[in-house]
Design brief:
By secondary structure, this protein is α+β, with helices and mostly antiparallel strands. The protein is 33% helix and 29% strand. It contains seven helices and twelve strands. The protein has helices at 4-12, 51-71, 87-108, 129-145, 152-159, 231-241, 272-279, and strands spanning 19-21, 40-42, 113-122, 163-169, 177-185, 189-196, 202-207, 210-215, 219-226, 246-253, 259-266, 284-291. It has a six-stranded mixed beta sheet with strand order 4-3-5-6-7-8. Strands 10-11-9-12 form a four-stranded antiparallel beta sheet, sandwiched between helices. Strands 1-2 form a two-stranded parallel sheet. The radius of gyration is 30 Å and the shape is elongated.
Amino acid sequence: MIDEQALLAALHSKHVAGAALDVFAEEPATSNPLFGHASVICTPHLGASTTEAQENVALQIAEQMSDYLLTGAISNAINFPSITAEEAPKLKPFIALAEKLGSFAGQLTESSITKIQITYEGQVAEMKTKALTSAVLAGLLRPMLGEVNVVSAPVIAKERGMIVDEVLRAGESDYESLITVAVTTEQQERAVSGTVYADGKPRLVDIKGIRVDAEFGKSMIYVTNEDKPGVIGTFASLLGDAKINIATFHLGRVAAGSDAIALVEIDGAVPAELLAKIQALPQVKQAKALTF
């Protein structure tokens, strides 16, 4: 604690050789007799408010934005893990995969989510999984809530009471890297898995325990049905009658005569009346239009 008038007197009498202050009784200290005294060094109460500091902060922000836009590197982010320029190229395709897996699960979810478990297996388990988890949550919540990003998604999930678990498994399965998103709702649990191949494209490899090998198309139709003859033919005929072109067609089933799935990429959007006709087929349990 300093008595400013006493300090001024001590400086005049040379009892105090000099002083350095960054806090004053009244601020701004433009009329303070200590301000401008030859034996006193005055600095702002907040060092970051100096002209030099503001210039340095501006340069640092510009450099960080440049690094992100050019290399994908992220540093000093408040609510997101830092990513180096070396890590960014390896992480980028898996962030895309994580977001799409979350989006796939989110678009199929029709009741409140209570828990999300994200399992990372193989090489991906050694990456910045916090960034990947944020991407999963953003993809998962966006179909339900609209504008959700990788920064806000973890906060929103916590506010909505969702339990988010990360599981890391260093050992490899059938893939060098595998991400599995399991979503538990009030009614059921659904899991979907994906990987990134050498071409860098994300792929679905497992839906509810059924093996598939499908890329994420811009517009897709997802169907769960009974594995009976004629279902696929009728389904394809409906698409043909509606002048909808099929880009890719992926099938899978649990066992002969059991539950089966179809994941179809089409050119253009899915008309509501077409989706209603697919849902009305006797063997179809669920039909959803998906966008990525």
